[in-house]
Design brief:
Layout (H helix, E strand, L loop, with lengths): L5 H12 L3 H6 L1 E8 L8 H8 L2 H4 L2 E8 L2 H10 L4 E4 L1 H11 L3 E6 L6 E5 L14 E4 L5 H12 L9 E4 L4 H8 L5 E4 L1 H9 L4 E4 L11 E5 H6 L1 H20 L1 H11 L11 H25 L10 H13 L19 H5 L4 H9 L5
Parallel strand pairs: 1-2, 1-3, 6-7, 6-8
Antiparallel strand pairs: 3-10, 4-10, 5-8, 5-9
Helix pairs in contact: 3-11, 3-12, 9-13, 11-12, 11-16
């Protein structure tokens, strides 16, 4: 589908959904779990190759499913319920160090883009103002909780005595907790914080600069899966890389393809179509900033690439924050084939971008 015009490409998207049962039976079934409740357009590296049929072209019938978080993703990988998982690098490190589960990074897709946010007109205007306040997190077991505590310590606060941490869940309940002053700050990732802004919140942001250089949301697999079917791993990674390149060809085309193929993910509650477009555009932009930072941290040439040194940044941070009690060679966390990311990016990136660009204004 890479060499086609956009009109043919649109027709192809429709045809992908109409593949005969007989053909579907010939495809290798693959399940990818992603640690989020809603798979919206902020994950183009997973939604675009599914929607545009790139994995089907490789003989794969891929289903991307939401899971409750990285912990559940680890459990599902370990039991063989899913083949791949999109999960936080902190969970990958914990799986290896604390539980002896050989989870490996296949493709790094974002950096650590979490932030503490407070209402611009509220009582928290600088880090010291967090003392005595209540801060909302997704759940007490989320990776954001550990990040929050690290930020507080770095700024001279005791997370066990100076603040109260409560679970708010994500989305509307979290924003309601902030707007009603039940919490005075929230701790979430970039696209979630932007969703709060889409709803009219004016926010202050607080984070450690080091976070923006640490690999975070990554496609992962068990070492046994990598050993048993390296060609499958390569094909999945190829789709991830294409999806990333496609997004940077035209974010608006990502939106159009997302809405056409996954209409249930279109923003609900928007008063107008233009507002819905603006909301999703803002959310995708935030995700792409993080994607670009991960791309640059991996050398700026290959989607998904990272290094043992980058993984060690996360590992050392986790050791300092007592999320793990020891370290292991950081190369352990990575797929071992040194040419893997080169092969995962073995496609015509310019052609992919041109297809995306031709979508604009259609």
């Amino acid at each position: 589908m890479i060499g086609l015009t956009f009109k043919t490409f649109v027709a192809g998207v429709v045809l992908v959904a109409a593949v005969s049962n007989a053909e579907a039976e010939d495809l290798k079934k693959v399940k990818i779990g992603i640690g989020t409740q809603v798979i919206n357009l902020t994950y183009p590296w997973l939604t675009m190759p599914e929607a545009l049929g790139w994995w089907r072209e490789e003989g794969l019938d891929v289903t991307v499913i939401p899971v409750s978080g990285s912990l559940q993703a680890t459990q599902l990988l370990a039991t063989g319920s899913i083949d791949f998982a999109e999960m936080n690098t902190s969970a990958i490190i914990q799986a290896n160090v604390s539980n002896g589960i050989p989870v490996r990074v296949v493709m790094v897709n974002t950096v650590l883009d979490w932030s503490i946010v407070s209402l611009a007109g509220g009582p928290v205007k600088e880090p010291g103002d967090l003392k005595g306040k209540t801060i909302g997190v997704l759940s007490l077991a989320s990776s954001g909780t550990a990040l929050l505590k690290a930020y507080l310590v770095k700024n001279g606060l005791d997370p066990d005595r100076d603040i109260t941490i409560v679970a708010t869940g994500a989305g509307a309940p979290a924003l309601q907790a902030l707007n009603s002053n039940r919490v005075q700050a929230l701790m979430f990732w970039a696209s979630m914080n932007v969703s709060f802004e889409n709803q009219g919140a004016k926010l202050n942001y607080f984070y450690l600069d080091d976070w923006r250089h640490m690999p975070d949301f990554s496609l992962a697999a068990l070492q046994s899966k990598i050993d048993a079917d390296p060609e499958l791993v390569k094909k999945i990674a190829l789709g991830v890389a294409k999806g990333s390149a496609f997004a940077f060809g035209s974010p608006d085309c990502v939106r159009k393809v997302q809405w056409a193929n996954f209409p249930q993910t279109k923003p609900s509650g928007a008063p107008t179509e233009a507002t819905a477009i603006a909301w999703d555009t803002n959310s995708l932009k935030a995700s792409m900033v993080s994607m670009k930072a991960a791309f640059d941290a991996g050398g700026g040439k290959l989607w998904g690439a990272t290094s043992a040194g980058n993984m060690d940044l996360v590992q050392q941070f986790m050791l300092q924050t007592k999320q793990i009690d020891k370290t292991i060679p950081p190369s352990t966390y990575l797929i071992s084939n040194p040419d893997f990311w080169q092969s995962a990016n073995d496609f015509d990136a310019d052609a992919v971008k041109k297809i995306a660009e031709s979508c604009s204004g259609q």
